[in-house]
Write a structure and sequence with these properties.
- About 75% of the residues lie in helices and about 0% in strands.
- The longest helix is centred in the middle third of the chain and has 31 residues.
- Helix 4 packs antiparallel against helix 11, helix 7 runs antiparallel to helix 8 and helix 13 packs parallel to helix 17.
- The N terminus and C terminus are likely disordered.
- The protein has about 500 residues and is an all-alpha fold.
Amino acid sequence: MTNVNAQYGAPRPADRPTPRDWRMLAAALTATFMASFDLFIVNVATETLRADLGASDAELGLVVSGYAFTYAAGLVTGGRLGDRYGYRRIFVTGMAFFTFASLLCGLAQSPALLVLGRLAQGLAAAAMVPQVLSLVTARFPAAHRGRATAWHGAVSGMGAIAGQLVGGVLLEADILGLGWRMVFLVNVPVGAAACVLAGRLLPRMAGAQHRFDPVGATAVTLTLALILAPLSLGRDEGWPVWTWVCLAASAPAVWLTLRWQKTLRARGGEPVLDPSLFRNRPYTTLVGAVGLFQLYFGAYMFTLALLLQAGLDASPLAAALAFLPQAVLYSIGSLLSGRLTARHGAVVPQAGGALIILGLGFLAAQLAVTGDRMEAVDLIPSLVLVGLGNGLLLPALMGTALSHVGPREAGAASGALNTVQQSASAVGVALFGTFFFSVAGPALREAHTAMATVTLAFIALTAASVVLLRTSRAKTPVLPRMEAATASGGEMSAGNQNDMPSR
């Protein structure tokens, strides 16, 4: 293994991050923003794409969900590539590829080319995004990771709302007559600048000389594809036979993938999905809590957009503006989450969960009483409570999960965490989206009834996520020696850090 200073950058104080660490985080968070931004910005352009490119419903579905599919499927591999070749190198490569793919999307002359560009964007996002949390795990002491992941959560929320707002504004402005193309071309100058900033500010990390596992990387990606492809496309395609075949095949694929990973570890290899993470009970419990949260959150954002535009007849821009107070409170809650959780403990994310449940309960009651007579503005009090609660809960879940892993596991742990987030979100959209459409009926005339119904499930998922958070606190964490020293204010020598065991 390489010397720890070469692997993790210049030495830093054992008790707190340095100013350079925070500048590094600011540069890395451009990936978080852009990935979230592009996940949402296309939603407002679907009808324009249909009119301009003649895209079919299936092609539009691929433009929207193809990005999310390749993004989620490649995250574990992206995290491991960062471990092997260095976080800065993979980050810059992913950002450059993302920028180029955005240019291809903006220049596409057919739906097929646009779909290919979106698939490439998702793969590029899968390369650059895991490096953000990997850098946090490698460079920030455990006690300060909550603040760093709070910024991660805030920036992700800003990217989501900016995608909705900027998309609406760009379509309304029709800059240079480019129409929907500006939705993608706006990434080009931003991505180029991000590559320059990352090259200057991200630490020069040589990687840990992991032996990359191409069989495992392929198996993990194909396994996720068998699950996510039918869930992402099944509803729009009418659930044809191939979707059920893929879902049936996913179970043995999961078993074979995990069996190979365990076999490789037993032979002394380094699997792309480290089985030791599954023995880290606090980490896996908290990843489960994140998964339950994302099941709710992905479906909530999707069904709420349908309610606003189809049920309440709001324009794309008006719907985005209705989301704005929620996004602002989410960002504020995310920024407060790390500091408050460090000071007051688990009561802060638990309070966040309570605010989500309160806001969702108020929303369901409004819809049940008022029905389709309400305006988009009437939803704002509920959305404010939900947004603040989301901000207090999600970053705390992520930060606490990462506090239970050491720097050597950073790529695998952050890749797995990001994969669970994106996969759970896709599953939530598929499951609750299908239920929403079935209850809402033709032309979504009963959208308010459908939203009130699925909101009850969202409340249950949020409560279960908080229960898992409480359960994880009952498990005694086994910190790597470097982090134990950090927690006690001590320092370790480079030689001792090199000897740090992996779980």
